[in-house]
Amino acid sequence: MNSFSEIAQSIKEYDKIIILRHTNPDPDALGSQRGLANAIKEAYPEKSVLLGGNNVEGLKWLSTMDEVSDDNFKDALVIVTDTANTERIDDDRYNNGKFLIKIDHHPNDDQYGDQLFVNTDASSSSEIIADLIAEVSDLKLTKNVAYYLYAGIVGDTGRFLYPATTQHTMNVAGEFLALGIDAKDINIKMNEITLAQAKLQGELFNRLKIDESGAAVAVIDQALIDKLNITREQANSVVSTPGRLHEVHAWLEAVEKDDGTFRMHLRSQGPIINELAKEHNGGGHPLASGADAKDLAEVEEMFQELIQIVNDYYKKGE
Ligand code: AMP
Question: How far is the CA of 82 from the centre of ligand 1 (A)?
């Protein structure tokens, strides 16, 4: 683990900086990436700072990416935010720079990079970027930085709902508001769903299979995606919904991919589910993880494993 001042020193040393984040980015991935980029650009206007990765249609209002050529990587400092393992970095060339830094809040299973800073107690990677800026003198928290970090925190805390939300998270968000960011704009955009997504939520409740343990599973297959004419990102966006049900303690949402396999979203109110995700080619936080299932049989296998986890958790009285 490195200190914020060591990371700040590296940022100071490099003229070319490329900031990357994970594939299928969420607001925290994009917010931490752009918030950091803006802070560096404002502190060092002469540096070249590029944002790499694919654009996400539904989140273009928050951030769009730069064209990053192979040549841009030459002698560059590459910083990766919000990405636990190298396979999930949204640019295979992440190692083609001169120096690599990881900044993240997921469990540090893959300790990549020449320098790294990981804080699993932070609500989000955006909160860590705010902490970095607060501690090092060159970087400043401005409105143009805070806007993106706020979106990241709101996204990863489910609007300050999830247990990772701490007093510090609230203090940091309060500082953003004090700068006069347009929080209303972010909140409205992040709360908004399309009519098709609302219909999907209804379908999700209809399809949700709830075991008496409190484990639940719902499958969103290609036929439903086609019927509602939604993107896969929109399908992914309803994943937190079952958590509102009194009867549900931990749940799986299986979203069918083009190749017929399933992207698995795992969520929990208490039982730890990231070990289950790891067993199925995934990973993530103790209460929010992602994984893959090759077919419906593997989805069912994961559901049975989840039932076991939930039963064990409540039997132990945790
Ligand atoms: P998702 O269900 O895709 O929204 O992912 C939930 C959380 O788990 C997010 O914080 C992801 O970054 C993380 N996550 C998802 N898939 C993986 C993976 N394969 N490895 C590590 N972390 C993951």
Answer: 10
